[in-house]
């Protein structure tokens, strides 16, 4: 029973994109490892930019420094 947790920033991922991610990951696990789609779990978590860190700061601040 594979469990995959996808974390993305909350910047407008559409319901259609989420469907594509879930199907794509499920298909990949089936194709590569032979895992049954019926027992494959995929969870997508959207994380606020202020709660996502990179380079010792949250993404909002990191992006400001990069620009």
Quick rundown:
This protein has two helices and four strands.
Describe the structure.
By secondary structure, the protein is α+β, with helices and mostly antiparallel strands. The protein is 40% helix and 27% strand. The chain has 2 helices and 4 strands, in the order βαβββα. Strands 1-2 form a two-stranded parallel ribbon. A two-stranded antiparallel sheet has the order 3-4. The longest helix is centred in the middle third of the chain and has 19 residues. The chain starts with a strand and ends with a helix. The mean pLDDT is 96.
**Mean pLDDT across all amino acids:** 96
Radius of gyration: 15 Å
Low-pLDDT sequence parts: none
What series of H and E elements makes up the topology? Answer: EHEEEH
- Give the N-to-C terminal Cα separation: 43 Å
Structural class determined from secondary elements: alpha+beta
Helix share, percent: 40-55%
How is this fold's topology laid out?
Elements: E1 3-9, H1 15-33, E2 41-47, E3 53-54, E4 57-58, H2 59-66
Parallel strand pairs: 1-2
Antiparallel strand pairs: 3-4
């Amino acid at each position: 029973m594979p469990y995959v947790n996808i974390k993305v920033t909350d910047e407008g991922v559409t319901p259609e994109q989420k469907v594509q991610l879930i199907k794509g990951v499920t298909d990949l696990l089936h194709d590569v490892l032979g895992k049954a789609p019926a027992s494959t779990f995929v969870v997508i978590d959207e994380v606020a930019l202020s709660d996502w860190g990179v380079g010792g700061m949250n993404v909002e601040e990191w992006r400001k420094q990069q620009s």
